[in-house]
Amino acid sequence: MNSQGYSIAVAGATGLVGRTMLKVLEERNFPVQSLTLLASKRSAGTTMTFKGAAYKVQELTHDSFNNIDIALFSAGGSASKEYAPSAAKAGCVVVDNSSAWRMHEYVPLVVPEVNADALQEHHGIIANPNCSTIQLVVALKPLHEAFGLKRVVVSTYQSVSGAGNKGVEALEAELQSDNPNVKAEGSPFVMPVAYNTVFHTINEKYGFSEEETKMLNETRKILRLPDVKLAMTCVRVPTIGGHGESVNIETVKPAPPQEVERVLSQADGVIVCDEPQNNIYPTPRMSDGRDEVFIGRIRPDTSVENGAYFWVVSDNIRKGAATNAVQIAEALVKHDWLAIKPLPAGASL
Amino acid sequence: MNSQGYSIAVAGATGLVGRTMLKVLEERNFPVQSLTLLASKRSAGTTMTFKGAAYKVQELTHDSFNNIDIALFSAGGSASKEYAPSAAKAGCVVVDNSSAWRMHEYVPLVVPEVNADALQEHHGIIANPNCSTIQLVVALKPLHEAFGLKRVVVSTYQSVSGAGNKGVEALEAELQSDNPNVKAEGSPFVMPVAYNTVFHTINEKYGFSEEETKMLNETRKILRLPDVKLAMTCVRVPTIGGHGESVNIETVKPAPPQEVERVLSQADGVIVCDEPQNNIYPTPRMSDGRDEVFIGRIRPDTSVENGAYFWVVSDNIRKGAATNAVQIAEALVKHDWLAIKPLPAGASL
User: Nearest residue on chain B to A182, judged by CA atoms?
Assistant: First the structure.
């Protein structure tokens, strides 16, 4: 670790995740020597504060990354696609929260509790997984090590903040509206989300949503289990923050609930809260503002050999995005893994 | 069918389901010759209208059922436990919406599209299944006949109206409150439900909720598949009406999506709406006020042999309660099945 601290940039600083990245850097006392806030032309000029000091947001350009050590990107997929390679070329390590680079062969996709070691092999761009994937793999990794995963069935209960500020504003506007049957102006959803459930974008009949496909591909890459059997249904519900996931697992070895609880209690980044008889279990509200993944409703699933259920909730803006990105930066710094490895001949980002 | 029509009573007439029963009787033009509205002492005296005429609600007592042909009960479990046997003794057939009688050996548990024939064997009390079970079995029955069910995994997205008027009022009050972290006064839920997800009552660690246990037991009884393998997680979400269910099935024969869609399209009481690429799929809002069960998101589940997914939504107050009860009454009348069969020696209700 550099005793002087690091030059950090946040690209997409004015968005919901960008603002939370700043908050998390401050809370976790990340060694920031200098801070550069970047955003689209539209948002440039905004003033934001970090540790009591004011910073003016600058326009994100190809030249924004000279002398920056680490850039946390949350400016949308097309900005990441365009500017992350320029940053890496300038010697800056990008931790990208968009989906643009996640499945790229030369981009590690990392949840520090699960596969921090993958950070050793980066070429200047590291991808932050999708929110609904992060909390799932934090739970699945220790369970796979203990019992061996055979099949996982997941149904999600995802909050509107997964679609950013616009998602939150759309829900609030529809709840206040005299006619909540009409979608709020500027809503990122395809229909009203107030008092409703909606799916993410689906491109074909009998097809999966983009969110579901992300969950499958990203889980396989992070767990390094390219054939793991995963069935997933991703649903948006009218909560503001905190994604819930109802999970059924089938394992190679028996996974009695006491053992599942013991394994998860000892897992990094997990808090088991499971006294349902006393109404103590994870909820979106209780996850608000927290960095951990909360697990409860552990119980045996006797509808299959070696089956178990659990319910997992995490703050999708924090552990599902901002916190995970900052944890990646922390791991890079702690292990002195900032050096950008050259790409193999013929490969490119 | 009696050309004069039938003497009908509605017990619990002032509740959310009771009021909807009246509306459904009217809409479906059930042959009502005379109507008696019953409720607890507290609600007796209220005036309600049916087909333009005013009716005064009377107090529910053991003597309320003389000369009544059919009584639709939705007055809560303890009232059903207490008064349904008196009604049956007076020669009145009870269709009971509470959970009090559902698992009784001598009480048919009926969803007309699924097991109307079970109505032939009643002894004066017929049970209406739980809302989340009804819409599930309407979908599972034709799929079992076509493909043979091996295992079903369900996660529910249940609206607050499942807990009656008090559930709806609690959500609305919390959404309007300055501090939605505090549960609304009179809320039937264990914690705030606005912007949150909560579970139904759970009595032990590693245990299932009462709602989950109902779904298992009732599905097995209705489908007459006492060993069917069913895994279920029941979740309350902040929608007002319309329950969603994410379902994964594993079948004996292959169940390709085109075949699943064909089978469901031909099933009684089902509307398939499944053009997700055009944002057409079932939602709680679109089910509002409808009597059918809506199914979409049909797709192959390759994580298991012969697997398929679907998403099912229905108006929990109508098909999940009031409409199903009225449909039972319609079947009794149509087939002339009102006669109360004597119980076997030694048996009792």
Answer: B285
B131-147 and B210-223 helices cross at what angle (nearest 10)?
40
| A131 catalytic residue (yes or no) | yes
**Chain A CB contacts of B199 below 8 Å:** 276, 281, 297
Single out the residue of B252, B259, B262 nearest to residue B306, CA to CA: B252
Of B197, B297, B299, the CB nearest to A244: B197
Which of A155, A239, A258 lies nearest to residue B196, judging by beta carbons? A239
The residues, any chain, with a CB within 8 Å of residue A229's CB and separated by 6 or more, are A150, A151, A152, B303, B304
CB-based burial of residue B280 (10 Å sphere; 0-12 exposed, 13-18 middle, 19+ buried)? middle
pLDDT tens-digit profile of A290-336? 999 999 999 999 999 999 999 999 999 999 999 999 999 999 999 99
Collapsing DSSP states into helix, strand and coil, what is residue A125?
Answer: strand
Look at A199 and B297 and tell me if their CB atoms are within 8 Å: yes
- Residue-range domain boundaries for chain B: 6-128+322-334, 132-316
Fold of the domain built from segment(s) B132-316: Dihydrodipicolinate Reductase; domain 2 (3.30.360)
**Which residues have C-beta within 8 Å of that of residue A336, sequence separation ≥ 6?**
A1
Pairing between β-strand B307-314 and β-strand B293-301 as defined by DSSP bridges = antiparallel
- A205:B277 CB<8 A: yes
Residue matched to tokens 């909606």: A198
Q: What share of chain A is helix, strand, coil (3-state, %, to 5)?
A: 35, 25, 40
Q: How far apart are CA B101 and CA B98, in angstroms?
A: 7
Q: How far is B13 from chain A (nearest CA, A)?
A: 26
Contact (CB<8Å) A285/B192: yes
Average of pLDDT values for B204-217? 98
Query: CA A104 to CA A92: how far, in whole Å?
Result: 18
- What's A6-128+322-334's CATH class? alpha beta
Sign for the CA dihedral angle at A298, B238, A291, A340 comes to: positive
Sort out which chain B residues have CB atoms less than 8 A from A192's CB and list them. 285
pLDDT, mean over chain A:
97
User: Among positive and negative, which fits the CA dihedral A50, A54, A57, A61?
Assistant: negative
CB half-sphere exposure, B276, CA atoms < 13 A: 23
Q: How far is the C-alpha of A330 from the C-alpha of A111, rounded, in Å?
A: 12
For residue A211, how far is the Cα from the chain centroid? 12
How far apart are alpha carbons A137 and A251 in whole angstroms? 15
Whole-prediction pTM: 0.97
A154 in Cβ contact with A162 (< 8 Å)? no
d(CA A40, CA B278): 31
Q: Identify the H or E element spanning B125.
A: strand B125-127
Q: Tell me what ipTM this predicted complex has.
A: 0.96
Q: Are A38 and A48 in contact (CB under 8 A)?
A: no
Do the beta carbons of residue B229 and residue B152 sit within 8 Å?
yes
Yes or no, beta carbons of A192 and B285 under 8 Å apart: yes
Mean pLDDT score, A133-144? 98
pLDDT of residue B87: 98
